[in-house]
Amino acid sequence: MSMNETPPERALQPVLGHGFADPSLLHEALTHRSRQHGAGSRRRGRHAAPQPASYERLEFLGDRVLGLLVADMLLVQFPREPEGALARRHADLVRKETLAAVAGDVGLAAHIRLPMIEEKDARSNPSLLADVCEAVIAALYLDGGFEVARAFVARYWRHRMTAAVAPPKDPKTALQEWAQGRSLELPTYRLVKTDGLQHQPVFTVAVTVAGAGEGFGTGTSKRLAEAEAAASLLRDLES
Q1: Burial, 109: exposed, middle or buried (Cβ in 10 Å; 0-12, 13-18, 19+)?
Q2: Per-residue pLDDT for 180 more than 60?
Q3: Catalytic residues
Q4: How far apart are CA 115 and CA 124, in angstroms?
Q5: How far apart are CA 239 and CA 235, in angstroms?
Q6: What share of the chain in percent tops pLDDT 70?
């Protein structure tokens, strides 16, 4: 970086709506692990990382912060909706595609610290953009507290929350209706494998629509894995 260039963590702060007391938090949120080359974390204290600092640890926290904030906003926005409808709205608002879209609104892609060899394709990768977006939410929360994180989420999620009058359909219902609308056989689901500990299993499920394709999903229950598989196949079919 030249003397005249603005560091990413400084350039982003006006867009994020927060001036960081500890810019290293935002630096970490924007850094891919392969950029570190074995460098240790610069931060100390209860959130210090024993391994090279990258967005991954902050992503873990940001996922939980976002989930709680969106759930709280949904309860206020839709006071008469039952739990099932709220759950479908929540799943739609915290999914990878929504996070990647928010990352695009914020302009995160240009500020992610990547090795030169990975930059060409990685900056447009929805999974990377979603992960970094969650990490940035965690950085806001750790540096400024819950209200700072809430203000950011409200700014970029509220219009998405109110755009749909009705809650989105669950993926299994949507896939079934897609197949019926094209006079195809109904989707069939099969358990591919079960991983994890006995008390914490992770299920992998495949869904097939004859003549259309197959999708896969994982989850901590068969129901969640089936929903993820249906969503995955729907994305492929609609693209």
Answers
A1: middle
A2: yes
A3: 63, 134
A4: 15
A5: 6
A6: 86
